[in-house]
Amino acid sequence: MTEGLRERKKRETRERISDVATGLFMARGFDNVTVAEVARAADVSVNTVFNYFSTKEDLFADRQDAVVELPPTVLRERRPGESAVRAFLRDYLDAIDTRHWRHGLNEGADVFAKIVADSPALTARMRQVHVEREEALARALADELDAGADDLTPRLVAAHLLGTTRILSERAMAMMTAGEGWERIAPMLREQAELAFGLLEKGLEAVGSGPRE
């Protein structure tokens, strides 16, 4: 469907506000910037900011919906005969190769992490995002497995898969923060990802490995 003029203008306004806010947060820290300052810098009113973003935290976590939806998408779009574990490994290796933001491997991710670490409000928000990601993946797994309400399998598998990606990304982030170059981080991360998901596959190989219709 072609985007209409009104929709395009709304999208562009939202993106401009978000970009301005991100720049201010990166320069001064999340807690040191007010919504009124974001509005002035973006040349809009405070009410306009809140029309697009319900809270100040939403200005920073503007990709939250995409982040939460990513794990179920990886599960749904796996290849015929591919297990859930292999699909998540493939997705993670692709993020390494492309330095994609979805796993916090993009340039500047260390600055993003520091802003979060320095703000209790953002730390709590990111923790909630992790919970929502895990719950979304667990629901998708439960649907595929036709799991009952008392079946812990979907929740356990979701926790293992997302816990693995999170630990890998935290390792990469620590190396970035220490000043390591990507040419050193990338091969280490690929090796560790292969090892970590290989360990998972030994225990979870039957999950999602049936034929895709």
TrEMBL record:
Record InterPro entries: Homeodomain-like_sf, HTH-type_TetR-like_transc_reg, HTH_TetR, MftR_C
Source taxon at top rank: Bacteria
PROSITE patterns assigned to the protein according to its UniProt record, in alphabetical order: HTH_TETR_2
Keywords from the UniProt entry: DNA-binding, Transcription, Transcription regulation
Record feature DNA-binding region, as residue ranges: 34-53
Occurrences of domain HTH tetR-type (ranges): 11-71
UniProt keyword Transcription present: yes
PANTHER family: HTH-TYPE TRANSCRIPTIONAL REGULATOR BETI, HTH-TYPE TRANSCRIPTIONAL REGULATOR RUTR
Protein name per Swiss-Prot or TrEMBL: TetR/AcrR family transcriptional regulator
